[in-house]
Amino acid sequence: MREVTGVLNMLGSGTSSVNQIGKSFTHYDTIEIGDQILQKLRTARSLNDFIERGLGREVTLYLIGNRIIGVKLQDRKLYYWKRSKTVVFICVVLIPLWGIGLIYALLLRDDLRHILGAQPKLAAMGGIPLKS
């Protein structure tokens, strides 16, 4: 999990989408935070509302790959994207039975890092979980 801290100067060209199972996301072409430009990011639409609240203020964004999985605002409140453990169940239990578990585990490695690594850390930091 990577942390980027600075003044959130710009949230550029955000678009929303909904996937086949009803989860909603916001996709950003560009985000400027401090002196860094981040490109091609996505987050849960519910988390996006709190990211927007940080515009013009000092925030910390928590990232895995091209996903924003958490935001800590100036008031020290931390909000994070809570993912379902269904992905872990599929990768660890069901797919190995089919003999292609390693391929799916590699394809879903960011999901697994999010669910098994970052999510428990953000919860332990007192974060407020938000579903996508």
Strand order of the largest sheet: 3-2-1-4-5-6-7
Distance between the termini: 19 Å
Radius of gyration: 15 Å
Order of helices and strands: EEEHEEEHHHE
Overall residue-averaged pLDDT value? 82
User: What characterizes the major β-sheet?
Assistant: 7 strands, mixed
Backbone shape: globular
Strand content: 35-45%
Would you report the number of β strands? 7
Q: What are the low-pLDDT stretches, counting only 5+ consecutive residues below 50?
A: none
Please tally the helical runs, counting DSSP H or I stretches of 4 or more residues.
Answer: 4
Assign the structural class, choosing from mainly alpha, mainly beta, alpha/beta, alpha+beta, or little secondary structure: alpha+beta
Helix content: 25-40%
Q: How is this structure best described in words?
A:
The protein starts with a strand and ends with a strand. The protein has 4 helices and 7 strands, in the order E-E-E-H-E-E-E-H-H-H-E. The protein has helices spanning 45-53, 86-98, 101-107, 109-124, and strands spanning 2-18, 24-33, 36-44, 58-64, 67-72, 78-82, 128-131. The chain has a 7-stranded mixed beta sheet with strand order 3-2-1-4-5-6-7. Helices cover 34% and strands 44% of the residues. It is an alpha+beta fold and 132 residues long.
